[in-house]
Amino acid sequence: MSKMPNLKETLPRFENTLSFAEQMDKDDPLAQFREQFHMPKSLTGEDQLYFTGNSLGLQPIKVKEYIAEELADWAFLGVEGHLQAKTPWLPYHEFLTESTARLVGAKPNEVVVMNTLTVNLHLMLVSFYRPTKDRFKILIEGNAFPSDQYAVQSQATFHGYNHHKAIIEQCPKAGEYILRTEDILETIETRGSEIALILLGQCNYLSGQAFDIPAIVKAAHKKDIPVGLNLAHGAGNLLLNLHDWDVDFAVWCSYKYLNAGPGAIAGCFIHEKHGNKKQLPRFAGWWGHNKQTRFEMGPEFEAIPGAEGWQLSNPPIFQLAALRASMDVFDQAGMPALRKKSELLTGYLEYLLNQLPNDFVTIITPKDPQARGCQLSFKVNTDAPTMLEELKLSGAICDFRQPDILRAAPAPLYNSFADVYKFAQLLERKANSPEVKTQK
Ligand SMILES: *Cc1c(COP(=O)(O)O)cnc(C)c1O
């Protein structure tokens, strides 16, 4: 993938002390960004040790101001706000185009914010899943997020295929948690002629594994298979280069790493080479219609060239306002700097987890920083749901996913090295407790 220096050579030698963690925070050029977020409080009134930014990112302080501006413009201007608002509503989504394109490594005409994630996934499947009698299968990663599984299954059914036959799940080898790139490539090589589409969670929600997208896309395109990505766990977490990777489409939500709030408006990428293809079927709505003639209210749909042509409805302005506040923070910090810190922060968490006594923790996320984002997924040598409750009482939030996996995601915008250290201390206390020592 990218030509990052070998992290082993660039990582500082970590130390398992609070003073080390605090020194790392002092040296962190992004440390002040934490102040741009509301930190939830623990029962004792301190900042929570918040490691669920992979589920719901924290609220940027400025969100309130951005939304208040739209409320005020609506109150004073009514319908005139479409053109007269300080940030006019008619083209509001366009004010997010540049920062969104930067975020995912796309050209501006390749991205649009609209709808929610699973809705966008269905819209993309309408356009890019074109099954035929001989070629109707969809390849997805094993342990894909349930919504993705339901989406591809229902699309196969919609086209008249038995979804048990239509979906190929690429699972890890027995006893392993991580997919090997060579296994994915082999499936493409041996079964490519049956496969109509590949859909991958670019960074898997459960294992935290980030796939080698350029290699997979290259192999898929050799077999004429389009590749779509779900970036729910990639956007705002990993460095993305969708255009150059030649990905066909991608969709993502904005409430996880992108901090745009619960149910936030989502994003969509359509590679420029597909943006004007008349022969691609799509479900259309008036917001995707040529902006010059949209209000002539004519009966014939004429798509805006590029990703915007897939829009259906006029978008929720308060949602766009929240996303704008959040994207402004990303623009200030910059993804390359965030990613650099993220590798250190997650590397530090990994180092501390591996130091825990009594084999308390087994990390399943790849060791290679290139093959993961900020999340570490791990198993613990005790009853995980009970432990999570105890952690919560002590002010630390991470989460549990069936069957037995804990996920902790230090987010470089607002988590500190001291957060990570204190979290590991809580786990250490647990690892040393009697019920753990007696297990095995
Ligand atoms: C979070 C997540 C979703 C959620 O879908 P919504 O439509 O936003 O509710 C879907 N897929 C993946 C991979 C996710 O991580």
Name the shape in a single word.
globular
The CATH architecture of the largest domain can be named as 3-Layer(aba) Sandwich
Q: Taking strands numbered 1, 2, ... along the chain, how are they ordered across the largest sheet?
A: 2-8-7-6-5-3-4
Distance, first to last CA: 40 Å
User: What level of helicity do the residues show?
Assistant: 25-40%
* Beta-strand proportion: 5-15%
How many helical elements? 16
The SSE string, one letter per element, is HHEHHHEHEHHEHEHEHEEHHEEHEEEHH
The CATH H-level homologous superfamily of the largest domain: Type I PLP-dependent aspartate aminotransferase-like (Major domain)
User: What is the count of structural domains?
Assistant: 2
How many strand units? 13
User: What is the CATH domain class of the largest domain?
Assistant: Alpha Beta
Task: Identify the bound ligands.
Answer: pyridoxal-5'-phosphate
Report the uncertain regions: none
CATH topology of the largest domain: Aspartate Aminotransferase, domain 2
Query: On the 0-100 scale, what is the average pLDDT?
Result: 95
* Biggest β-sheet strands, sense, barrel: 7 strands, mixed
